[in-house]
């Protein structure tokens, strides 16, 4: 059985999806008045609180400083006040490793970013996962922030602990402007994560055809494979991204490459039921995996595709990776027209899959008495048992199809 592809490119950044906490701090927390004033965006109250001796570098229970909170909100005047009155430290990190600059970059506060950089903020300081301000900005599509950080000397190729770079983050999140800016500033389009994935694969998994085309235009390497031998074409196919598949095929990507498990893009298309992509791959010359596509097409009752595959020479009793035949798949999915066609084409009515299931059992298990009758008329054995010892009648009874079971009783020995 074909296993699902684990998308190990973990581009959902630690900070993604977090929203500013608008609630005031705990009133028993000595930093509460200052945090409350910042949350209310009241610069005069911030100044008054500081004048009473509030510690500008005190942290709340999460290790967040007033400067981090103000930076996240984009309150330039408050940030200036905190920096001037009492000397707020710009490179302090919270419990999760965030700096004020990282928070400002994440939320697209470009003026605050520039201000913090001018005050000595470390542009490449990452959080506990290694996420840098540039990566956060790229992932969120904050192109103006990306530009400001790169202008300030941020390293465009610096990755996090997984090896994910800002370019990959932009590609995964479908931010073309940020991606093109990073490329123009020297980002390596072929850089890989520790799992062997790159920006092109990130875009392919996400179905981002615009990003893929932009990367293709830069001459991105189409022969790159991840640690399991999977290609960008396989990534796009697995995700059902037909437009991306089309773009890759137009670039003459090899359709017959197999991964370490022996699966080709065509096998992935069949396993996911993406018959449109399967047909695209066939037209591009794919051959390995046609048996899987035949079974998938029969399962969905796609007669033209089944006929085309048989015309190409695929055996009518060919089995997919799960050792299922087209006839068994059609019988199980109530495709009576397909069942009749396959039988007329010479399909073996007694063929079994890896579990010993026959087409008759497949039809009985889903209560399709009409298909059961067709199969019996063509010589199906009602007494044949699968590996668990169950016959077609047992499957019908077990699934509660009493009418089908009653019909089969007349054929039991």
Textual characterization of the structure:
- With 413 residues, this protein is mainly α.
- It folds into three domains: 1-209, Ankyrin repeat-containing domain (Serine Threonine Protein Phosphatase 5, Tetratricopeptide repeat), CATH 1.25.40; 222-286, Alpha Horseshoe (Serine Threonine Protein Phosphatase 5, Tetratricopeptide repeat), CATH 1.25.40.20; 289-413, Serine Threonine Protein Phosphatase 5, Tetratricopeptide repeat.
- It contains 24 helices and no strands.
- The chain has helices at residues 32-39, 43-51, 66-73, 76-84, 100-106, 110-118, 133-139, 143-151, 166-172, 176-184, 199-206, 209-217, 232-238, 242-250, 265-272, 275-283, 290-299, 303-311, 326-332, 336-344, 359-365, 369-377, 392-398, 402-409.
- α1 (32-39) runs parallel beside α3.
Low-confidence stretches: 1-28
What oligomeric assembly is this protein in?
single chain
Number of domains: 3
CATH superfamily of the largest domain: Ankyrin repeat-containing domain
Report the portion of residues in β strands.
under 5%
